[in-house]
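Why this split exists: single-chain examples teach little about how molecules sit against one another. For that reason, every record in the complexes split bundles all components of an assembly together and asks for one structure covering all of them. Below is a record exactly as it appears in the raw files.
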Amino acid sequence: MMVDWIAVDWGTTNLRAFAMQGAAVVAQAMSDEGMGRLDRDGFEPALLRLIAPWLTEGKVTDVVACGMVGSRQGWHEAPYRAVPCAPLDPGSLVAAPTRDGRIRVRLVPGLKQAQPADVMRGEETQIAGTLSLLPGFDGVICLPGTHSKWAHLSAGEVVSFQTFMTGEMFALLSQASVLRHGMQGEGWEDAAFDAGVADALARPERIGAKLFGIRAEGLISGLSVAAARARLSGLLIGMELAAARPYWLGQAVVIVGSEGISGSYARALKTLGVEARLVTGGDAVLAGLAATRAKVNA
Amino acid sequence: MMVDWIAVDWGTTNLRAFAMQGAAVVAQAMSDEGMGRLDRDGFEPALLRLIAPWLTEGKVTDVVACGMVGSRQGWHEAPYRAVPCAPLDPGSLVAAPTRDGRIRVRLVPGLKQAQPADVMRGEETQIAGTLSLLPGFDGVICLPGTHSKWAHLSAGEVVSFQTFMTGEMFALLSQASVLRHGMQGEGWEDAAFDAGVADALARPERIGAKLFGIRAEGLISGLSVAAARARLSGLLIGMELAAARPYWLGQAVVIVGSEGISGSYARALKTLGVEARLVTGGDAVLAGLAATRAKVNA
């Protein structure tokens, strides 16, 4: 197997590696050795456990990695670049120290914004990939997730961005708060999701009250698990959309993420008259890493 | 020691018992055997471990208990009463089954509201106690806590109420979310609290964005732990006040709770032109249980 270079998406919880020929994936591997489980000396061995079969003795293979691997708690810090700027700058890649002579590892830096204070790490690569997949795109990219991001793109630059804790709030509230009592199980009700979105958008200041209402309805009128989960998701996404209005209003919107969550965001945006295009998160990160690699070698 | 009756405040995490003569406390005891740690058969033994020294062989001592002990997961269910109604109704006390002949245990039911769906259990006793401490009070009672309550009182009845998950959200976000990284330690900055309150009240729909800003400022401009904790508290209390506006606007407000959290709410309300009176939560629950006991015996 001829491996040209290796693309790595290394977040807090997962490590994904791709053996590449140009922009094509020829093999891939994944482990749960995310940044959160590793100390500084653990990164190179964790990577080698995945990619060793792709390496050739006597040859140096380039590795380009994005995500939390470049944070202060990661393998080596790749300092944030300040917006407005292009999402990727090949000249700003930071070399990670290695012992194994068969690899040369470079880390993609994240982006920061001074006012309002914000940071991203990993999403800049997805944004670059989206620009590579949709050349000339101007508008807004929404990246739903644990920490959802909205980024305003113009002339190939990230002009501004904003992070929302929507995914983490859903996880905490549904698994660790009093609401968990009515959320054990499966199921989903679109109507409850839609009502949650509409409710949060109409009266966003009442979110704190609406949340406990899910528990109270479970106790006194038997709200189903499916309706409770969908309403919680709708309320939180609706609140995010209320705050992100300056981003999506009158803009071309692309949602970058996994199918399920992107579909929920698209559904909610549609009620606001916004027809979003969808790009798969995995495609975006690979396209971003490939674009970076291509520019480094250009 | 002459013990007339025993007052019990039994929540999810703590059990507090008071040996009473009329409305006066002659002894007290506390344990961490809250409802959350007990199964149905565990309640009577847990209570006896605390109150046995106050019991007399051959005599039946009355016990009046409020809080989660009366929930479906408690000792015995005391079904919710529907508002509008007086916070306490001696005729609605529910007897708990006991094996020990020295005690007769009665549980105070909570309150429910059909629309918007809401429930309380324990706070109804604090509200009754507040009315007993402030006879003739008409207005609004705010009970900050894990699940803050706002109740509208008129002519001795709870007309409506609303629960907010403010305290639980603070605990989850400061201890279990990404924000915890900037919140390990002590300290408090009043100015950061005030700014959080003002921010949330001015733009409540932006709370989801403001929260991650705490983390981002910690990363890129070194926000202190004291400022981060106080700002998070201010944002969450400000969001609660934004939603509770119909409760406090133009009303006489009494805050019932522990000194620290009540002080924060009073400070925030003062910026809105509301001068709240403070009642200690412990005083309120004891006064409520004593008022109940007095009416049962009348």
